[in-house]
Design goal:
With about 210 residues, the chain is an alpha+beta fold. It has helices spanning about 10-20, 70-95, 105-130, 135-145, 150-170, 175-185, 190-200; strands spanning about 1-5, 10, 30-40, 40-50, 60-65, 205, 205-209. It folds into three domains: about 1-70, no CATH class; about 95-145, no CATH class; about 150-209, no CATH class.
C-alpha cells in the first residue's frame, strides 16, 4: 500500500527512510502527514511509527485518518484496540472461527461462535495462570485504570452542559428556565444516581456544573 507523500506515491518503508527519527524516550519514532487515495478521493491521514518492543531494529506503523488528535492519543487508542485485533486473529487463524462451521442455520452459526469464544477464554485463563505472576485482583485494578478514560459523572456533566448550550442557542431560553428543566430531569433519576452525581461534585441544586 502506498500513500501520497509530498506529491509522490511512497510506501511505508520509503517514507520511513526519507525522514529523521525522534530519539530518546519518545513514544514514537516518526510522525508524517500523508494522503490516502480511495475511490478517486484524497483523504488526509497521519502515519505514526512506533518502536517495536520485541525488536529494536523493527517498528510498527499506525495509520489514522483523524488528523485532529495528536500522536500520543493515536498510540493510546491503538493500544486499547490491539487486544481486540489479537483476539479475532487467534479465533480465525487457530480456533476455526471462519472455516470450521459450514452450516447456513443462524442458530448453528451462533452456537459455533459461542463455542469458539469459550475456547479462547479457556486458553486465556490457562495462559494467565501459567505466565502472569499477578493476582486476579491486581489484574482487575489494572484493567479498571486502563479503561477509565472518563467517569460516569464527568460524561453526564458534559452531556448536560451540551444540553444547556443547545437549549440556550436554539430556543433562546434564559438560565433560570434551563436550570428548572434540568432540576426536573435530575429529580426523576434513581436516588443512587443522584447520590453518585452529588458525590462527584457535579450536581448542585439548580446549577449543573
Amino acid at each position: 500500500m502506498k500513500f501520497d507523500y509530498n506529491g509522490e506515491m511512497k510506501s511505508v518503508k520509503e517514507i520511513y527512510r526519507m525522514n529523521l527519527k525522534r530519539r530518546g524516550r519518545s513514544k514514537y519514532l516518526l510522525s508524517v502527514a500523508v494522503n490516502v487515495t480511495r475511490d478517486g478521493k484524497s483523504i488526509p491521514a497521519r502515519l505514526v511509527y512506533v518502536k517495536n518492543r520485541s525488536s529494536r531494529k523493527d517498528y510498527l506503523c499506525l495509520i489514522s485518518t483523524n488528523t485532529d488528535i495528536d500522536e500520543n492519543e493515536i498510540i493510546r487508542i491503538y493500544g486499547k484496540r490491539w487486544q481486540i485485533e489479537v483476539f479475532f486473529k487467534v479465533c480465525k487463524s487457530y480456533l476455526g472461527l471462519a472455516s470450521e462451521c459450514r452450516s447456513l442455520s443462524y442458530d448453528a452459526m451462533s452456537a459455533h461462535v459461542a463455542v469458539v469464544f469459550a475456547r479462547y477464554m479457556l486458553l486465556a485463563v490457562e495462559n494467565r495462570e501459567s505466565e502472569d505472576p499477578r493476582t486476579l485482583g491486581e489484574l482487575f485494578l489494572y484493567f479498571i485504570d486502563e479503561l477509565a478514560d472518563i467517569t460516569f459523572a464527568q460524561a453526564f456533566s458534559q452531556v448536560m452542559e451540551m444540553f444547556r448550550a443547545e437549549m440556550k442557542d436554539r430556543f433562546n431560553l434564559d438560565e433560570s428556565t434551563i436550570s428548572e428543566m434540568m432540576d426536573k430531569f435530575i429529580s426523576v433519576l434513581r436516588p443512587s444516581t443522584q447520590r453518585q452525581l452529588k458525590a462527584a461534585g457535579c450536581y448542585l441544586a439548580a446549577t449543573f456544573y
